[in-house]
Design brief:
Elements lengths: L8 H13 L5 H14 L9 E4 L6 H7 L14 E5 L6 E4 L15
Antiparallel strand pairs: 1-2, 2-3
Organism: Noviluteimonas lactosilytica
Protein name: VRR-NUC domain-containing protein
Length: 110
């Protein structure tokens, strides 16, 4: 599997800028920025063997994992992006976008 490149200094600066702009962003804008960065880093290219899905997955295994992963803990979780690998079965990235970094802390994850 070709792994996406690590963020370079420009990408880190862009993410820091995004963090500084967070109070003025809404969740949809954050989703658009994340998708732009995933595309830029090659996550959507078929050659790297990654599958990028939005809010749900065709994978029965991932569907099972999301079945009780809602915000309230009793329903289906719908993260903005789910990245999995065609060649590495236990590889998964789940992205939940928020407008504010302050809303990224979970009481259950500490």
């Amino acid at each position: 599997m070709n792994r996406a490149a690590a963020p370079d200094n420009l990408e880190i600066a862009q993410l820091e800028f995004l963090d500084a702009m967070t109070p003025r962003l809404n969740e949809r804008k954050t989703e658009d920025l994340v998708e732009k960065h995933l595309r830029k880093m090659g996550y959507f290219k078929a050659a790297n063997q990654l599958i990028v899905e939005k809010q749900s997955s065709d994978s029965p295994r991932i569907q099972k994992l999301l079945a009780t992963a809602s915000k309230k803990g009793g329903g289906i979780g719908r993260p903005e992006f789910i990245v999995s690998s065609k060649s590495v079965g236990d590889f998964i990235i789940v992205v939940e976008c928020k407008a504010s970094r302050a809303r990224h802390q979970s009481a259950t994850l500490g």
